UniProtKB/TrEMBL annotation:
Pfam families the UniProt entry points to: PMP22_Claudin (PF00822)
GO cellular component: bicellular tight junction; plasma membrane
Keyword Cell membrane belongs to the record: yes
Protein name, entry field: Claudin
Cell membrane recorded as keyword: yes
Amino acid sequence: MASASLQFFAFILALFGVFGDITATLLPNWKVNADVGSNIITAITQMQGLWMDCTWYSTGMFSCTLKYSVLSLPVYIQAARTTMVLSCILSAFGICITAVGMKCTKLGGDTDSKSHACFAGGVCFILAGVFGLVPTSWYTREIIANFLDQTIPESSKHEPGGAVYTGFISAGFLLIAGVIFCTSCFNKQPGAGVYPPPQHHFPSTEQESNAGYDLKDYV
């Protein structure tokens, strides 16, 4: 019962991780312009994401421009696009597989089949968490490196946006859920299956008794 409750808790974490992963992939605020120097008095907030660049004005207007050219993008943005999409796909597969393999559901067949399905879903969550953690870390590193570069003007410096933090938290949720599923699927009772129950066979005694019975019949 405790294992089923733990799996349900991991499933809720995985759901939050999936929704956060998809949200972080689509949000345009992976990095925002830094409020340093002359940028403090500006009335424009510039945001850059994986798929579009957006500008928010103090008047309330909002405009976005899609990034149509893939080859013109920096390498870390191309890698972030690929890994975040893979993370979303793997986490969605993990949700479907663990829903079948969880102990609190009536799907998936016998106990062994449900355990293997649950373990496969946990592996999907772990891979999704890794694929979500790599681009957010790389993207953050590039932002910090450009911010500390003295040759870059202050108007071109940026800070990590909300999408990066959402990606970090979602990757953590997926990793925790994957570890819980992988460790809770194959819990067995102590001593079960290790030492088979002793079996006593007395073939010689049975044969002697049968032989004696047969001789008495012929007397």
